[in-house]
Amino acid sequence: MKTLSTVKKGLFILFVSCVAVFSCKKEDQIHPVVINNTNVSLTVVIDTITQTNAFIHWKPDSVSKNLTYSIILNQDTVIANITFSNYVLENLKANTSYSGQIIAKTTSGLTKGFSFNFTTEDAITRFSKSYSIPNNSSVDARHVINTPDGGYITAGFSSTDGTNLAFLKIDSLGKEQWHNYFPIYRRQMFVGLQFTGDGYIGATNYYIVKLDLNGNKVWDKTIDFNSIGTGDLRSIVKYNDGYMIAGMTGESNGSNPASEAVIINMDLNGNIRWQKSYGSRLFNEADDILADAVGNFYVAGVTAKPGLTYNDLQLNNPASNFWWFKIDQNGNMLWEKLSDRSDYFDTGARLVHTKDGNYGFVGSMEVNYVGIGNIEVIKFDPAGNKLNEAVFSDPRLSIFGESIAFTNDGGFIVTGYGDTGATMIMILYKFDSNWKQTWGKALNIDDGSYGFDILQTKDNGYFIAGAHSNFYNGHVWALKTDAEGLYKKY
What we know:
Immunoglobulin-like; 2 domains; 1 helix; 39 strands
């Protein structure tokens, strides 16, 4: 919903002359209206317009008495001979221009028409909004999913005296409905988030929390990894009678940089059924997990280059590959695949379903030890066979991919952030079905901006969740754009 000032500059106020019926614009001179030889004026205002409705009201001056009114819209009578002075025009078409008149009639039967015009909002919702959480000095959004009511819920991190897992629920127009947050050990790169049918579940670090539909905690659980170093939960997916959670255990430190990918199976009440580790190379990370329709699971992450040693790391040699594998409900690995290229370091992988029944994921690759970043996208079929792999760079800045959505036109869109050398900026890159870039955008407010997750919406636009300013003094930044990545009309 918007005021008419966003359609035309200034409040849409119409004054009409007594000489003829005409449509006034803002720059028109105001004239008095003569009715029955009495000088009067009538002010018409349309101050609320949506895609389907417009609220119109008018006010005669104190001289005008005992008037009745009829409303004509596009030459059709909407209502006739009313004595009240406001009306809601309903069942309008989106993005459509309308014109009409208010016909004022005196008790002696004299009538004069007062013209108006307006344009309804288009069917694409656009907004750019920031959110903070009371008593938290910083908050971001690392993951977003659709909600049954047409809105969105984000999960990310916030800061009080320590670090929290923070949730923010907003409606389809970006209005906040609720928020909640829960203490965790420390901030990580990833947050898992899923709709459960009766609420939501989030996972990060050592912590898992189940919420109801209003954001109230149903239960929570802290995982004891029973492992040297630390652990990190990164993604969670619900299936018929439980949850699968992906992450890693162990930590690179000194001469022992070993880590293992971990998958945890839990029942619907949070009880652990089993926990298994994967990966035999120097380091192994499970960053995201998806379920298929028959009870198997696909995992994407990063693993060390085969044969990599700790000494290779010290020499800044290529260290890692993107990695994807498939497991059954019992955690048995069915196959695993690695990307063709070995990079200095690969980070993060967001795994999604594609529109044609396959799988795709995005991550970032540092091409050398000074941290120059490119975006890598890989698509594979249900048997793990790679269908496409591509690396994208931007000559203007170092770029890092955080999330991907495969789109209705057969292409895909990537969000993340770019490093200009002076600040971080949110990036959006759109690619067609041939994996050719069709457009790109760099967006920034405050001291820095980040895009962490993206969804395609029903109107073929996009919802991007992220943060602006820096990680420790920032806000959630949520954008709803059209199909061209615009979050406001120009």
